[in-house]
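User: Second chain of the day. Same drill as before.
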Amino acid sequence: MRGTLEKERLGVTVPGYDVSGIVVKVGSQVKGLKEGDEVYGDIHEKTLDGPKQFGSLAEYTAVEEKLLALKPKNLDFAQAAGLPLAIETAYEGLERAGFSSGKSILILGGAGGVGSLVIQLAKHVFGASKIAATASTPKLDFLKSLGADLAIDYTKENFEDLPEKFDVVYDSVGQCDRAVKAVKEGGSVVVLTGAVTPPGFRFVVTSNREILKKLNPFLESGKVKPLIDPKGPFPFDQVKEAFSYLETGRATGKVVIYPIP
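Assistant: Same format as last time:
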């Protein structure tokens, strides 16, 4: 993968975390990958802690071997590109919350890039006893198609007023002050954004190809599916439009840039 020295001289920062593509060159110490391999991953090991200057929105990018896994055979590059950071965040959050078979969970923002994967992982990987999730009115059927047992319309209901409480609440939208009211005593609240109210906690996701490799069977079997927003993929010359759309907060699944010439 080619560096961009001319951009470095100009002091340019290239955005982008996730990548999916074909290995075109490997370093002398690379052992597990070779030229021609189809791979995917989050190229920033610590997502929020000192990301690289040169991200993935480029024709070529350089990345450490330990951050890349072989792309699931049944996924195309666009589908794979929308997975790494979101699925690693979803999985690591569930693990840190101590989620396990037989437990219940409420996901705030169930139709988003992370939330949609939390639903699927909770059901198919962790063995949840009950899954509830919030979304706007048009997306309730979508939540159920992902595996949610209870789809909550946040425009009409206050989830914290439900008589039922949950072992884990996964807050992907920044409503921790309300989320803590929906968790059982002794339960956990995973917080991805916004202020944290105890017992809520936030974590910095670590890019880790071992998670991708572990989840590969669930992806290749079709039990866990990547979700690309219907407005995408956006071509490379519409990166600005893609970011603008992402900032509306109305995306369903992931916003993907593809192809990159």
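The chain has a mean pLDDT of 93.

User: Great, on to the next one.
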